[in-house]
Amino acid sequence: xxxxxxxxxxxxxxxxxxxxxxxxxxxxxxxxxxxxxxxxxxxxxxxxxxxxxxxxxxxxxxxxxxxxxxxxxxxxxxxxxxxxxxxxxxxxxxxxxxxxxxxxxxxxxxxxxxxxxxxxxxxxxxxxxxxxxxxxxxxxxxxxxx
Length: 146
Known about the structure:
Oligomer: single chain
Largest sheet: 2 strands, antiparallel
Radius of gyration: 16 Å
Order of helices and strands: HEHHEHHEHHEH
Number of strands: 4
Pfam families: EF-hand_7 (PF13499)
CATH topology of the largest domain: Recoverin, domain 1
Low-confidence stretches: none
CATH superfamily of the largest domain: EF-hand
GO molecular function, one term: calcium ion binding
Mean pLDDT: 86
Structural class: mainly alpha
Domain EF-hand: 7-42, 43-78, 80-115, 116-146
Protein name: EF-hand domain-containing protein
CATH architecture of the largest domain: Orthogonal Bundle
Shape: globular
Number of helices: 8
Distance between the termini: 20 Å
């Protein structure tokens, strides 16, 4: 695994925290399943078991941050193609209007088990919304991956 900068480590920990909905410091099989479902990624029980086995290096049945980091760091910080980013964007843009609204972001976070206040979700949108229109465009979404 390549050495991560402090900023990359924080970003990866933020992603880990989205998975770790009960804040236990570990990702359970059920939490992983919820995230995959929220992102409309179809995984049957066998595939879920394989993914857990791949990530759970110590065989504890859960994924701690170090295990998550070892598996995810390489792909998390790679440069994505426009096609890959568009595919991810469309998972968030439920109504297909070309923007991620506060409601769409809130809905997907809820499906992931993260029930944030409206003001927290609005703050997330505002942090990405460089145009000031109250929603996240594809280009603003892509800025997350630069």
